[in-house]
Amino acid sequence: xxxxxxxxxxxxxxxxxxxxxxxxxxxxxxxxxxxxxxxxxxxxxxxxxxxxxxxxxxxxxxxxxxxxxxxxxxxxxxxxxxxxxxxxxxxxxxxxxxxxxxxxxxxxxxxxxxxxxxxxxxxxxxxxxxxxxxxxxxxxxxxxxxxxxxxxxxxxxxxxxxxxxxxxxxxxxxxxxxxxxxxxxxxxxxxxxxxxxxxxxxxxxxxxxxxxxxxxxxxxxxxxxxxxxxxxxxxxxxxxxxxxxxxxxxxxxxxxxxxxxxxxxxxxxxxxxxxxxxxxxxxxxxxxxxxxx
Length: 293
Hints:
About 30% of the residues lie in helices and about 15% in strands. By secondary structure, it is α/β, with parallel strands linked by helices. Helix 3 crosses helix 4 and helix 8 runs parallel beside helix 9.
């Protein structure tokens, strides 16, 4: 990996500790947390929790990120591929319903090697939990290794995606990535207890002051993909606690009931099925603690 092209930015960074790319991470795996997590969608968290592994760094680094310490400050610890494989098995043995890779995109090559090693004996699904800004060619190398795709689809407006995530081509790229995810996992498959075994779930976080863009995004997804090809998870959990220093004043408040409900109504009109959140989810209390250990 002398020149990194693992994500659509293709910044061609050398990914050394002296020459980092946009993601802020060198070529070693770096994680900030690996533990059971109860706050994912119900068919992913189940009763025992999802085995979440939070990776340090990010190829989007959104200005409002609730995991700012990871995405912007790269808090975490470097580990080997063997260490990560052992973590997967530890989480499984602790009762995890699945292995949930959170913000994995910039570690795609290393993760492919680890998954090829553990997949034959892991025995539980692997979740690819990303920001949606993915290279379809890289995703194709994960075919047969990822059981559940869980991407965010954040924006429709190129101006908004540039302002908040420095990615003017976000929707076009995320759409191509989603189509590849659906090619690999086109059907929702559940076990007898309602846990998701295979499939694709799209998340969308409704941002304060961005209701119109959320509705435009839903309309574009219904047109470009179809509203019946995946489940959608509509989130109201935005909290301003992690964006108080950013210059965008609309991000200094929570989403209103009117904003969220109007987006939910449009999703229903368009025929989407999936999940919604109670307004009580909009609190920093649901953000995991990251100690760097």
